[in-house]
Amino acid sequence: MKRTYILLGILSAFSSCDKFLAEKPDAKLAVINSLEDAQALLDYYPNVDRNDVGVSEASADSYFLSDAEWARRAESDQRIYLWEKDQLFMPDSRDWRQSYANIYTANAVLESLKKIKRTTQNALQYDNVAGQAHLLRGRTFLMLVWTWGLAYDEQTAAQNLGVPLRLNTNFNEKVPRANLEQTYQQVIDDLKAASKYLPLRGNSKLRGSKLVAWGWLSRTYLSQRVYEPAASYADSVLQVQNTLLDYNQLNSAAAFPIPELNAEIVMDTRLSTPATLAQSRAKMDSTLILSYAANDLRKKIYFRINTDKSYAFKGNYAGGPTFFSGIAVDEMYLNRAEGFARTGLLQKSMDDLNTLLLKRHSTGTYVPLQNLNQTLLIERVLEERKKELIFRGLRWMDIKRWNAGGAQLTLKRRINGQEYVLLPNDLRYAIAIPQNALELGGIEDNPR
């Protein structure tokens, strides 16, 4: 009963963004008297595992809205879709609010552990709880900075804005935005702490493990364009878990052909799905659809044809309409392949791509890649990321980091005959901070 009271108390504190930013929480909310209490908070998966930041996918280029669907959306959704410079969240951003609620949960657990004695008898449980809290905080900060910060660049990271790094449960403390360098360092510190404390594998795919922490570290370094550790951490995952689904064994006619908690999944988390990405509204980009070869099973596994001959996405690794955002084996193959390609290990990179693509094509039809030069190989890796990792919360980050490295990708939307353009490295790639977070939290907005 006590555990339930603590949990419901914390959840009610975050029932609105105004309360989160403006009110001092009841002191009892942070009272966690046992490791079981702490674990109960971390196990409340509707909050901690089902609310990863989704607004970035609503801003990315995998889909489009018809004029009619765009007109039916709320003004905030319309403005996000067209990359407007401000007024994106009215009255607030659920992604921002829930992210900081999860960071509060992680902080409450970590503070409580200072008051619980670690003993020989409870050491494994104690460390597991600590690792899960560090993992939750680290991955949440990372998703926040992918969305509300510019692309990481070593030359400018100390000057560009990151996100507020709340590291305790004191609501009265005004926390300014850290810079990008500080934000990424905090992410790395948390994820490395998680990898130290967690067991190699979790006892559930809803809980963290060393494999999960390594997967998030691979993502972190990839987004910084630091490719050797990105490949190394992906390799650490694949040395333990490397099974790929054979898409020849899936029923492409099913509403959602890919099963939930399948063999590729290391940890199952989900995006908070923006209204614009609902299957009935989001139409897949035609260039993306045309990029699949005739023998590439992903075209039938990932998409269904609408009555107007457009395509809708059904390839969720969640086994249903929600979008999977967790760590999975296919992504780790792609992370390692990109790291290998960019550091000159071309054959190893091609081996990884061939291993993945063999399972994605009709049996006996795939022709393995060979003898690609570095430029062509990197292009192929990036193409496969776009085709494989749809709606997983990664595309916005990928576009930003590739453009920071000189890719020159320009995004375009067309509504009511007017074209809207987002140029490479535009300041709007750092999405506008929610207005009430600016006002109540006293933080600085992104430059425009």
UniProtKB/TrEMBL annotation:
Alphabetical list of Gene3D superfamilies matching this protein: 1.25.40.390
Coiled coil: none
Pfam families xref list: SusD-like_3, SusD_RagB
Cellular component, GO annotation: cell outer membrane
Location (main, coarse): membrane
Subcellular location: Cell outer membrane
Annotated ranges, domain RagB/SusD: 331-421
Keywords: Cell outer membrane, Membrane, Signal
Start and end residues of each SusD-like N-terminal domain: 19-222
PROSITE patterns found in the cross-reference section: PROKAR_LIPOPROTEIN
Family per similarity comment: Belongs to the SusD family.
Name of the protein in question: RagB/SusD family nutrient uptake outer membrane protein
Species per Swiss-Prot/TrEMBL record: Pedobacter cryophilus
